[in-house]
Amino acid sequence: MNSIILQPSIQEFIANNSTVSISKLALQKNPFPEVEWKLILNQIEAKSKAKDKLPTWFNAKNILFPSKISVEQTSSEATAMYKSNLVSGESLIDLTGGFGVDDYFFAKKIKAVTHCEINPELSAIVQHNFEQLQVTNIECHSGDSFETLQKSNLKWDWIYIDPSRRNDAKGKVFMLKDCLPNVPENLDFYFEKSDAILIKTAPLLDISAGLSELKNVKNIHIIALENEVKELLWELHRDYSGAISIKTANITKTAIDTFDFEWEQSQNLPNYGIPKKYLYEPNSAVMKSGGFDEVAIQFQLTKLHKHSHLYTSEELVDFPGRIFKIKAVFPYNKTEIKQQLSGKQCNITTRNFPETVENIRKKWKIKDGGHDYSFFTTDANTNKIVVFCSKIK
User: In what residue span(s) does the PG-1098 ferredoxin-like domain sit (predicted)?
Assistant: First the structure.
């Protein structure tokens, strides 16, 4: 950890330039010849990445940042806050501490948090930052977290793990056994140290694949931020063997859209039919969950087609996703498209449709943007149709 970066004049320079382009700054002469220019530029670049993602760190004084990749890979404050509501009790150990964002929020709910980080430099940075942020109930351990667990006689209320993919796992199908630490291999050992384990994985992990590698899974949380799935959270409880709950959450600036269902429990099928008055498009967390039939059944909606994943109703319902008022429905053919859309401006989405948005725009000379929305899709009678709408939510 380079404490020279903490000189007031350098900190002021970093703060004043956190919105300036790095390539532009790199061409300037270093105003602090006693410090490597690259070191200062790295701080500025990492800090700028934290502006929207980590406002607490961005706005605090004397914060040290690791590489911009560490900042890019860390949880956002919004998702870390969500995670903190899943845990409770006296103690939690984070086996893969990283930049410490999750632990900062865990520490608001848990009496004593242990942050383990194998990289000594990153561990020192995190400890320094917790001091600046006046967090006093997090203990930082530098070294292998497996050894920390082995040497300790403690039993924690929670173990938290964010495994990272091994470098040699690139190109392979995402499996937990290809990550560090190897959670499936170590699971029995972890359960000796805690009755509750929370695992964070990338959205790339297939839910069925994760379930084939893990046991005692009680809840799976699918977290999206502004309609982009950011992480899957696997909640494991020792000796648990009941139904698995899928909990989806799309966090926006104003609300959290949620939708829950039980994994592979529903035997019912939704109703299929033609578009009615309103059209519904699930958010990305619901799409990742695979709960395509469950969302129709729970909200009493009609599904347009088994594979279209678009829903409709006569009465307006509150829905975890985008909601549209249908203005027109017409078949996908030359006459109709020319008459209704050619040369006009419209937002286009395709669902279960053989052509790409790009091809449709080019072919029919449809401009992007505006207030109208067109869904190119397949209906219950397997006809190719266009649903022309205005957005409600």
Answer: 278-320
